[in-house]
């Protein structure tokens, strides 16, 4: 029997590395305190005395802020400078030793120098320590490239240890003893570094494969209510945010001196800032879910700037620390709203340096506020004020500029910032995944169908309508080939002669993965409407059914590729393949897939119908043999309903497209105005024919839908049962279209589907396409789809009876005439199904 795999939680090498990193953070804090202290007390090149005991210790009185700040700045420049050396150059400079070994050597060296510095007390010893610390950081980062992810964790431990020690010392010995406590902490760090370094050299000299414990990167978080970071070409507000963080941390030491609170004050500020940063970072993805992520970053910068400026007026430790910590919360939120790939170190280092330079250069002074009150402004206060004002100004610019939408939607962003986002349609019962994905105001609409059915034509028409008449931002795209990577994959797929079926399936999925990650999701996150010509169903139809590959495999790779993203609405344009081929003939040479034989395309068509039949809540099936304007009107009405449900369009009122033009009476313009005032989508006078009407088609007499009836939407004829593939019984009558795999895995079948949901129609025939009822549920989830479906059955007297496409939120066809028509239709379908069953029985199937 095979041995059970070892289940060690932490590799000992990880613990050693964690010890080195924690001691490294202690060393960093000590370097800041001691360089400032030694430089300020004795000058840059003189040895310093330890402070005398007691609150009246002379150290502070004799202390030179400028020299202390200069010494601190030199340390930070050394640390930051080494961090900024490019990796390639660093590799050439540092001897080629195993990384664990070099980290160990550097840890020991740093420990020894720190130990010496704590005894010899010259600022330049600290600078050597700073250099070694910086090299050690590089070595640890080479071991664990993500080692500085969420740095507040191990830094927090070190800062808390410093707070505890300095507080204890100051309680018993006065504020001057805080520095003595830091010297003790430095010795502890030195011992820890030497011990962990020796272990690293002796035991773990090779590269550590296990890595530091990670909590996972934020970009993969997909929980409900979490908004992914949103990429933007130049995330300069993030750099400013990091610079502000650097400035706050750099100013903590001079601030401690200025407030005369001893090193416990410094540790207190650092702990609170780290805590604030951590809280903000963790809060980030769920903060202001209704606001675009670039805007969150911009507002965070503005808020953090204002708080920092306010901090410049504060003369008391706790309030200063609270201001700094709250600014750090906003910094955490702001940087988390952007992808984390850009270099944080640059912004951070620049912020550190600028803040300290300001302390060095700015004069202090006293401003008389009244005869009795004067405000003593230290250089530290001035630095805080200037840094804060710069950040505030940058925040204002960012709020106005740092969003691909410019200022468009700023008001909406503010208004909806803290409202939960409208959930997109649930994908739980879908063919495409189980992710519950939510978008603030975006919607994902997909056109599916065979080659040449008119998808691109309809996608373009819909986009024109949504942009021109609804004022929405729309992204029209396609698969394969919606992105640059996709265009190359498309060429491989369609221009060549031979691609093996599995390779074909993987290439389509690869195109989709890139398409969703780089184009669809970012656009949805920006609140745009994405219209895609083809999506996952094409793979299920062409690769699973057409190439006869495993449905599960094809579905799974696409589900994985897209992280389960499901469209809000899929419009299936259904047309006989021969008719579609006729349309394409004029276009010239057919591509590799269009050249497939008729049987292949018949299988594809039947697969599409099965998919739509199994999940009626998510599909709109349209007879694509109609005039393109009639199709466009049907699609438009359905899309408007879906956009309303998802908050993309206002709920109230109706777009003029839903009002039969003839019903608008003689005073059309008035009707439109009032409908627009009610929140309806503005529509120009020359609106295209509505509701599936072909041009010139007879319209209902205006009286039929006068008054309030105007808003009513009736199921367009275009969405009635789709005609069957050639030679087959209509799907609505229980037959599989020609070419359907008779016993293959039903495409729409879900193992866990409950009897009540929208797929019950497939019970009679495995394909599920026999139910032509397309019901888009009100609430957009599976449960209401099932409820809507059941409701229809109740109305019409039996499962699968209804043959109407009912769109979400639209008034159900409630009139006696509607019901009679539905019943008649249902009866015809029942009879057709019975006939088919009898025929099958006779054939012994
Ligand atoms: N309803 C329609 N009636 C007649 N012709 C149409 C209709 N819709 C589109 N066409 C024409 O059919 C041809 C194919 O249309 P279109 O390119 O939109 O189809 P498609 O489904 O996107 O094709 P493909 O799958 O190859 O991308 C075009 O010449 C277009 O003008
Ligand atoms: C997305 C997708 C597409 N196909 C096929 C279907 C068509 O024949 C071509 C795409 O061409 P179009 O002119 O852009 O419609 O690719 C497929 O087989 N599988 C898929 O997933």
The rough form would be described as elongated
Q: Which ions and ligands are bound to the chains?
A: adenosine-5'-triphosphate, the ligand Cc1cn([C@H]2C[C@H](O)[C@@H](COP(=O)(O)O)O2)c(=O)[nH]c1=O
Q: What would you call the structural class?
A: mainly alpha
Question: Quick one: biggest sheet?
Answer: 5 strands, parallel
CATH class of the domain at 443-706 and 714-741 and 761-810 and 818-840: Alpha Beta
Return the average pLDDT rounded to an integer.
74
Span from first to last CA?
49 Å
The count of strands amounts to: 9
Can you tell me the CATH topology of the domain at 443-706 and 714-741 and 761-810 and 818-840?
Rossmann fold
Sheet with most strands: strand arrangement: 4-5-3-6-7
CATH architecture of the domain at 443-706 and 714-741 and 761-810 and 818-840: 3-Layer(aba) Sandwich
* Portion in strands: under 5%
Q: Give the uncertain stretches in residue-range form.
A: 1-8, 53-61, 207-225, 422-437, 653-745, 749-819
CATH superfamily of the domain at 443-706 and 714-741 and 761-810 and 818-840: P-loop containing nucleotide triphosphate hydrolases
Helix content: 40-55%
Our Rg estimate from Cα atoms comes to 34 Å
The number of distinct helices, counting runs of at least 4 residues, comes to 26
